[in-house]
Target: Monoamine oxidase
Amino acid sequence: MRMTRRELLVGAGAGALGVLLVSCTPEPRPTASPTATASPAPLPTTPVPAPAASMRSEWATDPFSRGAVSFTRIGVQPDARERLAEPIQERLFFAGEATDADAPGTLRGAIRSGESAAVRVRALAAEGERIAVIGAGLAGAAVAANLADAAVEVTVFEARDRVGGRTHSQRDDDWAVPIQLGGWLLPALAEGAQPQREEDGLPDVIDLSSALWRAPDGDIDAVVNAPLEKAIGAAVDLPTDISLAEALEKTGSDPEDPALSALLAYLTTTSGADADVLSAWFPPALPSAALRGVTGDFDEVIQEMLEGTQLTLASPVTRIAYDESGVSLRLGTGEATSFDRVVVTVPLGVLQSGRIEFAPALPFSHRGAINALGIGHIETIWLRYDEPFWETDATIWHTVGGDHLLRTWINLRPVTGESILVGLVGGDAAEEFAELDEQDALLAALTSLTPFLGAASE
Ligand SMILES: Cc1cc2nc3c(=O)[nH]c(=O)nc-3n(C[C@H](O)[C@H](O)[C@H](O)COP(=O)(O)OP(=O)(O)OC[C@H]3O[C@@H](n4cnc5c(N)ncnc54)[C@H](O)[C@@H]3O)c2cc1C
Model:
């Protein structure tokens, strides 16, 4: 088995210095990572100025995520997620956001799923067993952290040359905060409520609590979730499941109405799917009127969670052979290695793609669950300006009306002092955005910002 420099350091429990040394050592780059680009020359076709720098995600085409988040399709029961999480022959375990029935598609769900898998492994594993975890995202890190004191030997195989998976904090000295190309937003806390237990340890959580709903004729009142709640409430009594869009129509709402359409666009930035494919019986969490955001470095947190494990980066697993006596893994390099038990945390999109061969094939209930769940799309673009071209201090912007591709923006200026705008797009629009080349993606983002042009603030 090839040992990377990082594995040696992390395996030896090296701290920040080790991580620093490693970060100076280029790892092989097996994947098209989200890219950083200095902005091209000012774009004459939009009145919105070109940013000083921009960076965008490319999850749709990333071979190690194949989309952004799982969602529940029409007619699919949430127990599909529980079936996927079911251990096989007490040897093969599954975790990852798609396996968490309570908070799928979220940071919290990923952590919860890793914790649950670790509980299951601990209940069976004897002292000294060799446990492998496939994937060093939040779920894989949570498995490892929860096995840290279990007297077992944990090895983590990660396909990319970095940890974090669908969290990805890019550090750049020119930016006031790490650029978050994956998940980083959390629902706002209700008054007096405590943060969720899974949020413990998430770095630098900031409040993004003021929203702006901008229509062509002026700003409108915040669009509330009431029509969605009414539609979902009514759908429960129907004999069969229908789409959220259909449920809205049945209860007298028009999903094409500009205000409701802006709310639905916001929903796609967390669900990854449009209302016409989302289940009304088992809908995603509804949009949060206010948000919190993680402005710290996820990669550092995950490195910490993985301390004490053998971490092997740039090592995609291509085959998993299992029976009641153990599990054997084959890596992309052709090497094979055996373990007592294995926890698979790769994204649903990777499981659906068939890029990992299971021998024997997974039980029918697992294959059924993998095929039943949907893969949604979310993309993001971060723009940094030397001077703001907007005057509002609202932190969450929504575009009401028009046919802009990106209709949800986060304004980080009030909370960081730097003129940073973060565009979010989900569902079909995210797929469309992902297909654009750098120049066209930036153009689409700038055009989408036209409604927010205003006099520069101080
Ligand atoms: C753009 C975007 C925005 C999001 N926004 C939010 C948000 O605001 N709030 C929120 O709560 N959630 C959000 N999410 C969702 C959240 O990021 C995910 O639910 C969570 O990070 C998933 O963690 P995971 O460990 O389940 O999967 P992952 O993080 O994907 O980890 C799986 C790991 O497996 C690795 N892997 C894949 N194939 C192989 C292989 N063959 N061999 C070895 N390793 C492999 C991958 O490289 C990856 O590191 C967002 C996601 C995206 C993409």
